Amino acid sequence: xxxxxxxxxxxxxxxYIFNALTDIKNFEKLMPENIAKFEVIDENCFExxxxxxxxxxxxxxxxxxxxxxxxxxxxxxxxxTLTAKIDAVSENSTDVQLFFEGEFNAMMAMMVKGPISxxxxxxxxxxxxx
Length: 130
Fold this sequence. Notes:
By secondary structure, the chain is an alpha+beta fold. It has helices at 14-22, 27-30, 106-125, and strands at 2-4, 8-10, 35-42, 45-50, 56-64, 68-73, 80-90, 93-102. It has a single domain (2-129), classed as Alpha-D-Glucose-1,6-Bisphosphate, Chain A, domain 4 (2-Layer Sandwich). It contains three helices and eight strands; from the N terminus they run ββααββββββα. It starts with a strand and ends in a 5-residue tail after the last helix. It comes from Flavobacterium terrigena. This is Carbon monoxide dehydrogenase subunit G.
C-alpha cells in the first residue's frame, strides 16, 4: 500500500527542515490533536499512540542530507516506512511531501488506509510548526 500526502510549502530552508526532521523529538509537534502518547526512546526512535489505534514505534532508517528522511516500523509484524521528501524551492522556501509504504494484506489495507491517509496529511500540514 502506497500513500502520499499533499506537498506542503514551509517558509524555511531545506537544511532547517532536514535538521528538524532528523531530531526525533520534533515529531511530537507534527502529531494530530488526538495523540494519546508520545515518547522518545532514543535519538533514533520514538513511540506514539493515537486514541483508538495501537501504539507504533518508529525508527530512523535512512537520512540523505537536506533531501530525505526515512522512518520505519520497529516491529516486523507490520512492515512500513514513512519517507519525508524535502525539496528546496528557494533559500527560505521548501516543499515537503510524505510517502507511506506498507506491506499489508488486503483486509488490513482496507482498514488502515483511511486513518493512515488522514495521519500523514496531518503530519504534512503541521510542518509549519517546526
